[in-house]
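[step 3/7] fold_predict: job queued, chain A
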Amino acid sequence: MTLRLTPVEQAMLDGSEGEGVALAMRIVTGLARVRGAEELVDVTGAHIDSCLYHGRAGLDFAEKLVDLGARVRVPTTLNVGSLDLLHPGTVRADAEHPELLTAGRALMDAYVALGAKTTFSCAPYQVDARPAVGEHVAWAESNAIVFANSVLGARTDRYGDFLDISAAITGRAPRAGFHLDEARRADFVLDVTAVAPERWHDEAWYAVLGYLLGRQARSRVAAIVGLPATTSEDDLKALGAAAASSGGVGIFHAVGVTPEAPMLESVLAHSDPAVHKLSDADLAAGRRELCTADGGRIDAVSLGTPHASLAEIRALTEEVERTRTTVATGVTAYLSTGRGVLALAEAAGLIAPLERAGFRIVVDTCTYLVPILPAGTRVVMTNSGKWAHYAPGNLGIDVVIGTLAECVRAAGAGRVVLDD
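[step 4/7] structure written:
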């Protein structure tokens, strides 16, 4: 296919707006040709995953863009980086990770210099960026992508490092993938009508459902039937984040819940989709699969992956105060959230009780990505399917997934607490 550019886009490619914009446009058009796009689409915003330090190449690229005078031309949020800039010392930059304090900070600073907002959150949709249904954006980070497409009904394809900032600088992305109607249609149905309704009272079971969805769907688009109409954004966030971790899910439709799926027929690619049914026993088995430890002592509890919303922080604070929990000696308990949500939670008086109970607040980064957990940590309890899926491989620890209430009780008891 031949990629057609508008006169403005061609001028950007030719360098009329500077070499930084031309470099970004070369990347965007190169991706467009690979994706078979015939044209580019204007995007109204971007979310950048590239500010997490993975090596010198990422820093060199960002600093090159700064040196070339590039600036983002659409509102742009930043994903987590390698440091908690509001709480110095949270990340251990020891002999094994000496570059985090210097290169990690330099990378975060470079993206701010390009004009991006200092959000440093994997959940920009909670406060900083809420694209409307049908609005085209260029978002990176797996949970942000699936949330934008599924829960908000916005349109973004999967954008990785370098591609995300290039779209932000040009305001363009290939008209391909999930920007197109046909790519958003479901060819796979997950039926959860047999699951007991009480399961859906806690987001941890949505996380387990997401884990099973990712394994079953892989990168296919799925429609889910049987979720209650009261399913919240936080429930869908937990589901999507886990599905994007265990599989390659970039969009799902929850019939009667998400905006593009008022009915199953509204989102199907064809009339005879594959159907997979899940039961309570399947969810219980999925939880067991996510757990690499089954009991005994814990060293830490980690909540807020993706970053906790204001409603989730409120629920945590209420649970801690209701149970009068104090984090046990020898246990570290973490709550990860974004700066914007933290400010709202502090104003609402929700953070001080958690800190008095022994919880540590983490922003700008995440506990499964960088060395935050104390050396020697072996077993961690979490309510996040994403955290449970990634942490054993990333950190070499064992993990147990539980509900919020179970995690709070475990933090106080210093051992695994599970109700079933």
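[step 5/7] annotate
Residues 19-35 form the longest helix (17 residues).
The CA atoms of residues 137 and 156 lie 5 Å apart.
exit 0
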